[in-house]
Each structure stands twice: as structure tokens, then as C-alpha cells.
Amino acid sequence: MRLRLVSLAALVAAMAPVAPALALSPAVAPAAAPLAQDLPAAPVADLVAEVDIPWSRFTLDNGLTVIVHEDRKAPVVAVSVWYNVGSKDEPAGSTGFAHLFEHLMFGGSENAPGSYLGRMRNLGPSNLNGTTWFDRTNYFQTVPTPALEQALFLESDRMGYLLGEVGQPVLDLQRGVVQNEKRQRDNQPYGLFSYTQLEVLFPEGHPYRHSTIGSMADLDAASLETVRNWFRDNYGPNNAVVVLSGDIDEATARTLMTRYFGPIARGPVNAPAQAAVPTLDAPVAVTLKDRVANTRLTRSWAVPGMLDADAVPLQVGAEILGGLASSRLDNQLVRGDQTAVSVLANMNAYHRVGIFEMAANVKPGEDATAVGARMDAILADLIANGPSEEEVARVATGYVSRLVQSLEQVNGKASTLAEGQLYAGDPDHYKRELEAYASVTPARVQAAMQKWLTRPVASITIEPGDREAYVEAAAAPSGAAPVPAAEIQRVARMEMPPIGDVPDLDFPDVERARLSNGVEVVYARVDTVPVTRVAVEFDAGYAADRADRLGAQAMMLDLMDDGTTTRDSTALAEAQERLGASINLSATMDRTAATLSTVTANLAPSLTLLSDMVRNPAFAPSEVERIRAQRLSGLANERTQPGAIAARALPPLMYGAESPYGRSFTGTGDEATIRALTRADLVAEHNAWVRPDNATVFVVSDLPLAQVTAQLEAAFGDWRAPATAKGTKAFDAPIPASSARIVLIDRPQSPQSLIYGGAVLPVSGTDDLLTLNAANTSLGTDFLSRINADLRETKGWSYGVRGGPNALEHRVPYIVNAPVQANRTGESIAALIAQYERFLGPDGVTPEEREKTVNGNTRSLAGGFETSAQILGALRSNALYRRPDDYQETLSSRTRALTAAQMDAAARAVIDPDQFIWVVVGDASVVQPQLEALGLPVEVRSIQ
After folding, report:
1. pTM to 2 decimals?
2. CA nearest to 379, candidates 294, 276, 301, 288
3. Cys-Cys link to 828, which of 133, 307, 807, 820 (CB 3.0-4.6 A)?
């Protein structure tokens, strides 16, 4: 199985039903299994031929490089701005400055004061964000074509006319936000590993030795003049690349870019830091302690960067070692020895250098030293004997297939072109990489691994235990002390251009067919790229678990993905890789699904594989036991993650234990039920829920419906329901009355608390929630919603706060997700309650909020349904909530008709903060006194 490193999105994702917590490896089929059908794949060369991004390029007089890609499939344009500066360019004592300035760039500019994100919301953008990494800082948004000029005005204003809005209050606020982002990352299991990895691999003074997020001390020391000078030195137009991708041509782009960016003065010439690839003098071994469930063993080497001839061979080697589902580490440590519960290997290629790493999470009870020796031996064998031709080919096919699918979005193509231009001076650099993947040989992979991975290694082990004391920010940052700063001379500009009329969404026509066994097919055609996406969906989900079998649905899905009666686990993995297909078995609270994404050239064999996994799971007894052990390890891991701890605790408090929704949103059950589940239980679970009379097939493809239906018929048409009864779910258990209270779950040594609160609303997902969701945009989901504007953008206590209805099919919960710095936990709950009371009382939706919500929600529709994956999601949600096929096309007119009074009435009718149960995951020694001061009942629990 793949080693899942915790992402920042994990906390937000916990608001919604989630997929099984473990994506486990396929199982071994019985020895007497019949032979599997051969699945021929299209040649890699044919897939490579599908990849092309035509572009043109010009340079303004001030040195700004502009690249234009024309794609008229939707009335949207991606604007992607890449600055050739990142954390590797930061001098000593200024770590984190590049990322801090990324945040400052969202604080408004001289001719567009106030939040950049707030202004952009009015344009209806999708993919709106900014990121910082070692080598670059980038900003991107996809906007409706009629809003492009205003987007270019705003983007150019922060490139050329920013500093007048960067004052001490803005710096102090964003310093606090960034430090809370750092706490949020550091608060995760294994969250401190990357700091040690960089410090061990790179010597003092090396540009890549420090993390992009920086240190608390350096962030504290950032003064106003220092950060202003950082902008002056690095953010000139001659140090940037702008890509316009979508509904635009070169002539229009020249006119607009000259108009808005042309007057910006050229900046200093920036020479990004050079960096050699260091070699350790001798092997280094470091052991860290962390509040984790599994010992993690890691091996790391500094290697060449992305432009080196060895980069692709090393990336291919990493995939074969521990990236593929059929990787050497998976096959031998997870499936074979069963001494590890998860493994990983990858090669992170940066501009100047790269990091090659492998890791294994040790199975509880196993000897970590022996597992480490085995891991080292597997690598040594791969280096000594090299990979096979077939392994290399599977990696290449997967890489090309993923690239083809990534090019659906105009922003994806913009990023591909910008990265090539910034790092290689060639927007077609992606073609060079494609050629390298298509031509790489086993000998070339072996030679690169021999050259770079036989040098001294950095071995870092993370063991369960108490962390070292956390290095916190200063109570009074030195950089917050006001010092005289030169007055910024503002430059008058043209008026901000208006936004033109944005056309309503034209959603693809929905067609239907039915297989010979009665299974309905719901289809939409999208021919942007040669890709087909399929979802075979079942009315099941985690809510289908019986009270005495919690976790059965998720464990069943693991085993469906882990061996069939015709293919063992390795054969399943290799078949997907050979086809470049991605098959996933997952569940939400309401639905279970087997999804397929593949290049259309490989659709028929991919459907055969999908059908085999859905219809013929082996449930081999030995694999049941292996998956059981991994499930138990996963449960232990959940007890270390703030988001999972909260997602396990809140549902039964809201719904009651008897409700199908009154169990963990992770769907993973509990230790007692996982230990008790038998093979017969899992077979019965499959017979009850995964069957043709409980299925609907959703398809988005570039092929016409008739061709898709014929291939589906070949794969699923002869599938018949078993004689046993179909499963049923009962939602008649009463939901307990609720009143405001706090449940504090003690998680010692947490630099941040996770506030996860909510209540069950008197509405269902099948109700019309348009007005309620529109009202909640201003209250809880927009970047400048009342709660995020308060806790992040005003107080700086959080990296991000969100609250809103979670549209389950039956009774809908309202959930607030608020990670906050530990010493502000009590104040944050008080502030949240106050914001809800004000919004639901005298201070409802303002005219400005209503206008911004209407504009943002309607103008963003074209970008929101740009890809086949988005279209497929819409087909599935329309079925779940029993909406008409043209639902998406009605959204604009219905939203424009809403009044502020209607929004207020919808919110006040169902949301009551006096019913909110607040789960807090944090250090009780720090948090409990704060919570008791609020006057609400407080119950303290240990992690369960």
C-alpha cells in the first residue's frame, strides 16, 4: 500500500465523508483460480502522440515573458503568474520570507485595497490560490472570459503597485497566519520530519537546507522594511512568467498584457541561487520521537535536480522501488514479509537538486531494525540487478496517462508551460520529459541508481514517544516593533475595468442507456482529451454498516482491491499500471463506488479489470487476516491525527449511536468489530450491497454513448444479482436533543487545537439547499466569510476556518472546522459563537455580501465544470440528491433571483448555535482552563 503522508487538506477534508483510511494492496487469489483474461494495452508511443500544448510567446519591453495557449472548449482563461524566486533564495536569518510574501500579496494593492481574494471572489474564479516552494512562487486563477481584464488589472497591480498597501498591521496579521499554518503542519504525526531531513542532507549555508515555511524566530524578526526590500529585489516583471491559457488568442493577449503589465518598471536582475548536490561524508543515523502509532524508517539522499539527465531515470527507479502499487517494497515488505503496513519511495526533483527517499511504516510488533535491513537489501538488489523492461514500461505508461488526464484543465496546461519556461527556458520541456520516459532503459535506471544511491545515506527513524519541546513564536515578535519606513510613492493608474456579461453555464447533455441486466447507465460526452471516467456506484456507503459490524464496508472494499478469483494482488496492480488506468474502491457516508479513469484507447481492457474487481473478489482467508492487521494499524494511526480524532468523536455526539450517521466519518469502525469480522461476514457484505440491482453506472467519455454502452455490456452485462436479499438502511432512529457543550479530547504536546463543532439540521440532502448554501457562503464558506475573516484575516489565530452544511442524503449536519493556535482556543470558540449569533440575529446578509455571493456563485460555474471529473461528480450528485439532469444549468438564474432576506430566512430557520456540540482536540493542560472560562459544560476525554 502507499504510505500516506498527512496533508494540510486533511483537516478540511474531515468535514466531508471520506474514502477508506487505508488504500490497501490487493490480495492473493486461491491457487486453483482460472487464468485471467489477457488485457492488451495501447503502445506508449500512441499515448505520447496525444500530448501537445500549442503555444506562442512574447516578451514585453520591461522583460516580462508571456506565453499564450488557445483552448476554446469553455469560456474561461487561466492566468498563471510564476516568479523566479523561492525559499532557496532566502538569506540567512530570513527563512520563510518567500512564503510570507506570498501571503502579503493577497492582502491588497495600492489601486485595489483590501483582500485580493475578496475582490477576486466577485469575478467567479476557480483554482484561485498561490503557492511557494524552494524554487518559485506562483499565483493562479481561472476566470470567465468577460472577467479577464479585471483579473489582469488586479494581478498587475500587485506586481507593480503593491507596497503602498504593505504596512505594519498587514505584516503582523499575515505573520500570525503563516505561523498558524506552520503549527497546523507541525501538529500532524511525523510533522517535524522534513526539518531534520533537510538539515541532515544539506550542509550549513546550502540554499535547500531550510524549509519553505521557515522558522518561528525568523518569521518573528521579519520587519516591514525587510519584507518590502524582498519584494523590490525579486518581484519585478523581468523575473516573472505569465501564462494565459484558454479562451484567448495571441493578438488579444498582446493587447491586454501591454495595457496592464507594460507600464510596470523593470526590477533588479535576479540570479536564483546556485546549489551543488552535496554528498554526506559518512552515513548519518538520527532517531526522532513523535506521537505516532507506527515506527517509520526513512532513507534519504541528495540527488540531481529536474534538468539533469539522471532525473528521469531516478524517478523511474523510485516508482519501481516504492511508487507503483506493484513496487518492490510493496511486494516484499507489505504483501510478502508483512512486516510493514505501508511503504513509499519517490524522487522529488527541484530546480537545482532533488531528494530521493524511501520509507516504511513498521507493522506493530515487528523488529524495526530487521525491517530496515530488509528495506536496504531490496534497494541493493534493485541496484545490483536493475529493473525489468516490463517494470520500466509500466512506469512510463502511468506517467504519460497521468499527464494526458492533467491537461483537461486550462490551468493544468498553464502550469506545465510556465514550469518549463521558468526552469528550462522552454515551454516544451514537458515533451523532453515525455521523450525521456518513453526512451529510458533498465540499464539507464540501474546506472543512475548505482551512481547516486550507493553514496552515504541519511537514515532517519521516527519512533512513538514524546516530542521535544515545541519552539513557539515570541509573544512580542521583534519585527512587529514599528520602525521608521520610507513613505511609498503611489502611482496613479487607469480605472479598474468592469466585468462583462458572463454567459450562463452550458452543461453537457445527459443521456441514458440500460445494460441487458437492467443496470442504468448515465452518460455525458466530453471530448477535450481522450479520457474516459466511469463510476459504478452502489446505494451503500459507511451508513450501510450494521451497528455490530462498523468498518465492514471499508474492509470489504480493501479486499475487493486486493485480489480476485482470476488475479492475485500483484497481477491486479500490474494490469492497472500496464494500462495506465486508475481504479479506486471507496465510500462516502451514503454511497460506495468503484471508479475508473483511463485513456480511452485502453477503455475496453480497463473495464474488464474493473469488472473483475467489482464482481469477483476472492476474499482469500490469508488476505483477510493481512488486511485485518493493517486495518487495526490504521485505527491506531487515526488516534494520532487531530482530524481523524475529531471525525470519530463528533458524529455519535450529534446523531446518537443508533443512527447510520452516528459513527465515524472515516468509516473505519473500531478495534473490537474489526477483530471480530469473519470472511463470511465480508462475503455477505459484498452480496448484500455490491450487486447489479443496487448499481448505477456513470460515464463521462470522448466516445459516443453507443460505443461506451457496448463496452460496458461486454464487461457487466452478464452480471446477475445473488439470491440473497439486497441490503437496506434504516434512518428512523430519533436524533437526540442537543445543547451547547464542549467535549475536550486530550492530545498532549499539540501546538494547535482543532475545533470541530456542529449540530444536525432539520433538512436532508434531497431538499433544495440552494438558498441555505448561498446564505452560508457569507457566514462560513467564503474566504471572507464572517468566521474566517474574524479568526484568520482579523485576529490571525488560524490558517483557515470553515463551516457549513455537509450534504448527506438524509439528515444534514452543519460542521465547523477551525484549527487555531492553542493559547487562543477558548477565545476562538467564543468568537465563533458570537459570529453565528450576530449573523443569525440582527446582522444577516448585507447587500454587498449578497452581490458578491451571487456574482461568485454564478460566474464560477463554467470553471467549476471544466473537466470530465467535475462533470462525473455532477452526474453522481444529481442522482444522489434526486435532482433533474439540467440542475446545473438552472443554478445561475435561481441564484440571481435570491434576495438577502431569503438567504437570512433560510439560515435562521435551521442553524442554531445553541445546539452546537464543540469537539476540541488539543493539549488539555493548555486548553482546559480556557474552555472552562466560557461557561459551557466541558467534558474531558482521552483519545478513543
Report:
1. 0.93
2. 301
3. 820
